[in-house]
Fold this protein.
Amino acid sequence: MFFNVSGLLLDALVLSVVNRNDTYGYEITQSIRKAVEVSESTLYPVLRRLQKEMCLETYDMEYQGRNRRYYKITSKGKSQLSLYLEEWKIYKKNIDNVFSGGIKDE
Amino acid sequence: MNKESFLSQLKQKLTALSSEEREAALTYYEEYFNDAGIENEQAVINELGSVEKVANGILKENNYPVGDNNNADNKNSAVPSDSKANNINYGTIAILIIFYIILSPVIIPFFFAIFGVLLGFSIAGIAILISGFAVSIAGITSMFLSPINGLLILGVGFILLALGILISTFMINLCAVGIPSLVRGIVKIFKYPFQKGGINL
């Protein structure tokens, strides 16, 4: 993976992982790392920020005698995610157009 | 390094944060280690990199200046050192500025008027002092012609002199204290909305 993933794209990835089902930090990190190369330390600040922005909420559940904090997407997070997905479609199409020579100087 | 030393070092690096933020981060990484499993402990530590890197990422997200040698990062993070600084009430500042603009035809002449009154009394005091000198000298010279008239004029001169000294010293003191505090007052009033909002001029 050559391309750097950061900022809003990372927000979008996290939101879409949590959107599938409620999940916890380690699992979120592993899911995202299957697709893109991000350091394990970059995810926590993103999760925390999304939580503060009320896009995610957390709840604690016991797992094997210890506590685990689960992340759950909120309705604000869902609308944010659908906005990102729409923007991504446009972005992807534009980039693809440039790559395939679709946009030429008139 | 193991999990415990990693977490305790991280705790030290995050002392600038509120205890709530710090605990949230430590809980997250502790759970992270637990979920990764003991067999992956070293792999996780290696992947996380240095404690500084992890701590800086968290501090930066909380708008704390990150004290490393990375200048590009410092520029971004050094601006608001306090999360409260982000909650600038632009509405109040705008209202205050509008208020000042509307009131400036009143406020500014008002300060000039005070200044003018001070200046007027000072000059009057000095004028009385000078006239006191003049009358006293006139009194002394007229004593050669008519000692009684001369004495009278000299007495009036001394009264004027005393009055002049009294008024001028009082006005000098008033100006020495009054004018600087007047100027400070004006500056303070006009600086207020910018200071309050955390906008650096």
About this structure: The domain at 8-99 of chain A is CATH 1.10.10.10 (Arc Repressor Mutant, subunit A). Chain A has four helices and three strands. The radius of gyration of chain A is 16 Å. The beta strands of chain A are 23-24, 56-63, 66-73.
